[in-house]
User: Fold this.
Amino acid sequence: MIKLRTMDEVDITGKRVVMRVDFNVPLKEGKVADDNRIEAHYTTIKEVLEKAPKSLTLLSHLGRPKGKVVDDYSLKPVAKRLAEKYGLDVHLAPPSFDDGALKLLETLKEGQILMLENTRFHPGETKNDPELAKFFASFGEVFISDAFSVAHRSHASNVGITEYLPSFAGRVMEREVSVLSTVKENPKPPFMLLLGGAKVSDKIGIIETLIDKVDKILIGGGMAFTFLKAEGYEIGSSLLEPDKIDFAKKMLDDHGDKIVLPVDVVVSKSIDDTSDIKVVAVDNIPSGYMGLDVGDKTVKLFKDVLKDAEMVLWNGPLGVFEKDEFAKATKEIAYYLTEVKAQVVVGGGDTAAAVRKFDCAKKYWHVSTGGGASLEFFEKDILPGVKPLVKEE
Ligand code: ADP
Ligand code: MG
Assistant:
């Protein structure tokens, strides 16, 4: 199990604190459209402020401005939401990444927050430039790393900075690593992996890491069709990754007893043409039709398998849940997982969005804030953004 240095191990009272958060939120017409991430980090921010540090400086990226100052990617709407939602006094620095921001920090009083502009406005951020990392570090005496969702990236504001400051995991980071490493290294049997989403290729890593630890792998979503094809079924115009058929075959040959595939699917001529939607058995997919959700019999089968689970890791929606016509299985399984005895962990950005859409997220053990990071957590030995926080025994 990975053990991190946490906020319990540092006294920040009277100290200058720099904290990396992930405020990469969706914006709409210049306003924050979804403030889940702000809410998630607020727990850590609140705790830091309660300990009365001398100052708190927040670092975050937003979107992909590619090393240039792009107004549309300014953190201004984020600073505003954080201030308004929690009654905080948040000062956004100008985007110049120079002494101006440090001078601004000196004018702030205890309890006020400095937010630097989008870290990716600087070309050094994604290159993990040591000069930029040093600049970020100059805002503090202690670094708190809370942005788990960027932990799969080696950037100046989450990895480089740890070279220059004593670094500790914030509460979001701590919880993510604790839950996900339990699932990865020490899952409670029967442990089941529920997979879906678009591509097999995205999920090969997680399958390979967990295959010997899982009791069952249930596969839905677009990726199921490459497996069905490997079983010899005609899949019409459903999503197929021809170069992954061999992988699917090998999995089915070596671990067939663990793998649960759909028995029926919801098909349509296309995602947008909903004039002729039907449910068919997997051996009866008409040509010219594509599978966009799993059918009721499959949902029943999946529920039957999941009912015995003690731990479930769910990554990938079971259908094109963004459209009501193809959301049924994802929604039903999402509800069902709120009722089972198992500890349920959701990873993947779209899966997290789906379970929030269906109002189930708060009922699970854990919904990861990391999209790509949660997947890579399972694929890699250790993520670059987690490594500098590991406690030496
Ligand atoms: P996550 O972000 O949770 O890891 P993915 O990115 O792998 O999930 O997959 C999510 C996408 O998969 C969704 O946008 C959904 O519409 C799509 N999807 C699910 N089922 C199908 C299907 N049968 N055919 C095509 N796309 C699908
Ligand atoms: Mg996705």
Summary: The mean pLDDT is 97. The two ends are 12 Å apart (CA to CA).
